[in-house]
Amino acid sequence: MPAFVPTAPVRRRLTLALAAAALAVPLATGCGALDKALDCVQTADTIASSVGKLQQAVSNAGDNPLQVDQALSDIGNELDKLQDTTDNADLGKAVDDLDKALDSVRTSIDGGDATPDLAPVSDAASEIGKVCTP
After folding, report:
1. Global pTM value
2. N-terminal to C-terminal alpha carbon distance within the chain
3. Is 134 helix (H, G, I), strand (E, B) or coil?
4. Per-residue pLDDT tens over the stretch 56-88
5. Whose CA is closest to 101, among 77, 118, 82, 84?
6. Which of 3, 14, 28, 45 fits a 20 to 30 Å CA distance from 63?
7. CA 32 to CA 58: how far, in whole Å?
8. Distance in angstroms (rounded) separating the CA atoms of residues 5 and 32
9. Handedness of CA 45, 49, 55, 61 (dihedral sign)
10. Residue 12 to residues 17, 19, 23: CA-CA distances in angstroms?
11. Tens-digit pLDDT profile for residues 9-63
12. How far is CA 39 from its chain centroid?
């Protein structure tokens, strides 16, 4: 029995189908990467906003000391989300740096410091913003 030899229109359709399949794989992968990048940018923006709230809470700590705890918790929650959605080493380091800076602020506040140094927190949050910016 002779081997099947496709006609020109069949070969063309087969070639187009294979080309479409070959293009679909990188596009699907690209969309996942794009979604991750967008999540990173949105989370970095939320962290920056939370750092602003932390700065405001520290300056108003005499009026409402619970605001500082809430702001620290909010940033910690956003860091957890960001850490769960990334495998980027630079971003992981920036998240770790911010986490350490937050621990330092918590320790200072627990030790009675009404005006802890927030510069390391701001610096680490800025680094996350840089890493997440495409």
Report:
1. 0.68
2. 58
3. coil
4. 888 887 777 788 888 888 888 888 887 777 777
5. 118
6. 45
7. 38
8. 39
9. negative
10. 9, 10, 16
11. 544 454 444 434 344 434 333 455 666 677 778 778 888 888 888 888 888 877 7
12. 6
